[in-house]
Amino acid sequence: MLYQIYENQRSLMEPFTDLAQFASKAFGNTQSLLGKNPLAQRISAGYDLLHRLGKDYEKPEFGLRTIDVDGVEIAIHERIELSKPFCELRRFKRFSDDPATLAKLKDQPAVLIVAPLSGHYATLLRDTVKTMLKDHKVYITDWKNARLVPLSEGEFHLDDYVNYVQDFIRHLQGIYGNCHVMSVCQPTVPVLAAVALMATRGELTPLTMTMMGGPIDARRSPTAVNNLAMNKSHSWFEKNVIYRVPSNFPGAGRRVYPGFLQYTGFVAMNPSNHARSHYDYFKDLIKGDDASTEAHRKFYDEYNAVLDMDANYYLQTIKVVFQDFSLVNGTWDVKSVDGKLERVRPQDITHTALFSVEGELDDISGSGQTEAVHSICSGVVNSAQKHLTVEGAGHYGIFSGRRWREMVYPQVKAFILAHQPAPAGARPLDDASRVAPAAVRTPPPQKVETARRPKAAVKLSTLVKPAPQASAPVISEPVAVAPTATPEHETVAKKSPARAKPPVASKAITAAPPRAEVQATLAAQARRRKSDGTPAMPARAGKVTRGK
What we know:
Largest sheet: 9 strands, mixed
Strand content: 15-25%
Number of helices: 17
Helix content: 25-40%
């Protein structure tokens, strides 16, 4: 009923907010009759502020068209990679016509940024995405407004959130082999559960998990947000913040936690800060400070755009994260897509490096809540874990603004790069240099046969001195050339082995006679020595000597 009343009031106020916008432009135009009024600038500023306080803020766009990488302008194409009933996986594909830049972008890590489903759209992480795009292939979860999802798509629970994250991780792994995951605020809990369940099943888990400002253990340093969730009963939330979507939306009849109630809660946390910010905006309009007024508009266009959350998801998150502390107590069971209950066991994660980031002045996730991930992920070695506390940073400062770009991002980039494997096909220089080109390899030396092989053409040195009485052929001793051993992997081929020194003059070099002729000659010499009484010399025809 409250949701319907709010919508009726908004519809009633819409013409007046449009009229306020028209009046602001009319008084702000110095060429018009109204603009010549001495108080025209103040009146224009007042109407402009009234218009912004009363208007309805729709979902903004990311608006990332180009980025600068080392002085080269890179074009960005935003597209939907996967679409599910309650979420879209968006990819920011980079294009360049510079060959050197393309080669650099090709092997950069793929990162899945899991945006929070806690009231604001994923565009709240615009600065996060823009910065990450310089050195990474970036994907982000873009959660849909529950009031735009028809009832025919079914309900959405925290378990479905976990299953969505697993599907997105597997999708990136199917493209790149593996990926890195970054979660900001609320999704740190379901992301940890998703990776833990994958590890328990023996699936491939992401290379790293970067967790920023999330309530892993909400018992540590509880904030106002934590106290509200812990001190009210589950039934109180169901009775006081859950309403059905009015009939003028596609999701008519769906039970949701309305965005306008969430926005009221955001403002109620720091009402004085918001009042001061709007008053400063009014003064900047009067002064004509265009830079300050434009910065104000950009921030509140994002901050005031809120979405509805499915009631089942919201209530289950309150119970699991802030009341039962099921993750840190080890009692959380998640229903898989096939309806099977699986226990979340963070200690089963062993091959995923962990990096936790907290803001010193975070008033949403207190000090130590995100750092608790290291104590429950006991299976990860200490060398693969890291924690960072950003001095002077609030909740939004750790993922947006100057502190994010100058203090947080350089360490996130280095952590991801340290756990990114070498590109496929890359080869160390020393290994690549060991293989010699085929054209410069030394041909193997020719094999030399002994005198026993009748068909071998070998060189023989004199084996037996000829008897003075005989005019028989000279028997030579075989001379072989020793092959030179070359390393199996060598860059430069060895030179051919040196030729053997020529035999001394007393040794005649002849071609080897046939084996039968040699045997006949030896037999004849033996008979002559026997008849002459000369002692026979030992036969050495089979001995092989190596060349020097």
